[in-house]
């Protein structure tokens, strides 16, 4: 009855496209897990001394502990977060709310609530990695003095 | 459409990707036990697969995209009525598009591209009569149309469909991916090996859904455990493809140039004429 509500293009199409997007999200999530697992296996086999015993996703991979966070690692982590926290909730929200006139604002709220815990986790892990790097740098400098 | 469909599709995508990752190891295990079966079908050994897992080369974006497409195609194929990632109205069309993307990941050498094009054309022409019979591109309709035992399977509906099924299997055998060639610049890696091993599996599953009664048993009394029925039939189809692979007369790559596509065209036209003449329906 509301004149502002958009007409659904095809009621089933939104469901099918959401399912398709979620399916590819699952495939990419599996590929990311496999890639992460292979990286761990390679590090164990190589026995790299520079890497820490519990590598965090934001841990720098360069030998210099004062180097900033690895951009590639940051990009991968951000991509994984976007995939896991945005695709599935978005698909569910579209499916449940279509064609609600406030769908856009509600999607924005879903994204903010989905990203908030990930951003918090990122900050905590980045802080822990930074503290660990500074401790390693301090340990390396002390023997020289 | 039911509640939680995107979540179920996500899990199906995870499952399909996991199966494709593990599948090369399964083939290597079978090759270790029955090496004669794989005399002309190149599969990585378990040791080679383990080495790829630990220290394979970095995957190119093209291979990753092709592998993603293949995993998507595998997730779209039904294991039972509604047992799939997404129940798409144009599922068969999506499947063929994803197959095209997956084939581009194998190799970009002109001979390989021509082989892939010939194979894809043959497969499409073999599936076209089924689209005519079900009047749609819905994968679930292919399965539903074959309920009622082996007599209702599309494989035995008319002689031209039987010919189309045989041509389909020959095309899959001819399309069995060749090992990577270092001289051509192909890179090997875990996802590339999974792509090469998974392509025949996905095509065999599609054959099961299209021609072998999908998830229905030989006799209606045995209907049930749909995933088991589909899995067993897919395994049998793979066995037939491997047997054809050992017969160069049936599975030579050169057949994909014009013989198999022409034969598939003939079977397609014949099936269409048979359908029009007999008035056969679902």
Order of helices and strands of chain B: HHHHHHHHHHH
Quaternary state of this entry equals heterodimer
User: Strand portion of chain B, in percent?
Assistant: under 5%
Shape of chain B: globular
Average pLDDT of chain A:
69
Domain count of chain B: 1
Describe this structure in words.
The complex is a heterodimer of chains A (145) and B (282). Chain A contains 3 helices and no strands. Mean pLDDT of chain A is 69; it is low at 53-66. Helices cover 72% and strands 0% of the residues of chain A. Chain A has one domain. Chain A is mainly α. Chain A has helices spanning 11-46, 71-97, 103-144. Chain B has 282 residues and is mainly α. Chain B has helices spanning 5-33, 46-55, 61-76, 91-104, 110-134, 139-144, 159-174, 190-211, 226-245, 248-251, 259-278. Helices cover 65% and strands 0% of the residues of chain B. The two termini of chain B are 24 Å apart. Classes of the chains: A mainly alpha (145), B mainly alpha (282). The A-B interface holds A 12, 15-16, 18-31, 34, 38, 41-42, 45, 88, 91-92, 95 and B 1, 5-18, 21, 53-56, 64, 67-68, 71-72, 75-76, 85-89, 94, 190-191.
Features:
heterodimer; A: 145 residues; mainly alpha; 3 helices; elongated; B: 282 residues; 65% helix
